[in-house]
Amino acid sequence: MSDPHDHTDAPVLRGERLSKLYPDGEVAALRGVSLQVAAGESVAVVGPSGCGKTTLLHLLGGLDRPTEGEVFFRGTPLAKLDGDQYRAREIGFVFQSFHLLTTLSAVENIQIPMFETPWTPRERASRAEELIKQVGMAHRRNHRPTRLSVGERQRIAIARALANEPSVLLADEPTGNLDSRNQDEILRLLEDLRRSRGLTLVTVTHSAEVAAAAGRVVRMRDGLVVET
Ligand SMILES: Nc1ncnc2c1ncn2[C@@H]1O[C@H](COP(=O)(O)OP(=O)(O)OP(=O)(O)O)[C@@H](O)[C@H]1O
């Protein structure tokens, strides 16, 4: 697998004529989308409900496969990469509804993806402590998610997404459940993390504020990119 810190001129992610047909109802969610995302870029994907934003994010993250076309990660087709390794090591996912495990503490949630790595328990624990500090949540390390505010839950989910030091963060409506103050804080956190870690960030959003905070906006309509 390629070195995530190897900065070449090739885009970190590239979609080539991606189409996605969902079999039930034969919905054409994507109808030939091509786009490139450079290393370290922050891209917001916007467009009306149902235009294919989440589908595109899932294809980029290897959570689903295109019906036609191909996604490339640093020039290599995803079809040629080990899908589990790609999702576990190269990509971090952030979701609107956090998807934290309620039976685990905040710091334990951050460690979940680390079980895919050869790190020792001590290494996992110390990396999780570092991450929980970076997202400003060390004082809540032992709290279960149900005892955290929604903004705090998203901070923990972001730390978890970074657990395996991915080079790309894919976020689907990361502020969709947050009020405007929490939204601003999460946007600031994501931007700080992008800069400090050289992360590439692709965010699907309905929020004009989130789109305005990104370096570039990709606009979709009816399964197509109409502006990039
Ligand atoms: N698993 C699925 N099976 C069938 N159709 C699907 C599936 N997932 C999505 N779709 C359909 O594909 C189209 C694109 O959906 P997608 O979730 O990508 O849009 P979106 O732009 O992210 O929408 P929203 O902003 O409402 O989240 C929609 O018509 C949706 O109903």
From TrEMBL:
Name of the protein in its database record: Lipoprotein-releasing system ATP-binding protein LolD
One Pfam family recorded for the sequence: ABC_tran
EC number(s) on file: 3.6.3.-
Record-stated family: Belongs to the ABC transporter superfamily. Macrolide exporter (TC 3.A.1.122) family.
Keywords of this entry: ATP-binding, Hydrolase, Lipoprotein, Nucleotide-binding, Transport
Species the sequence originates in: Paludisphaera borealis
Alphabetized SUPFAM superfamilies for the sequence: P-loop containing nucleoside triphosphate hydrolases
PANTHER family membership: ABC TRANSPORTER ABCH.1, IMPORT ATP-BINDING PROTEIN
Domain ABC transporter intervals: 13-228
GO cellular component labels: membrane protein complex; plasma membrane
The gene coding this protein: lolD_1
Organism phylogeny: Bacteria, Pseudomonadati, Planctomycetota, Planctomycetia, Isosphaerales
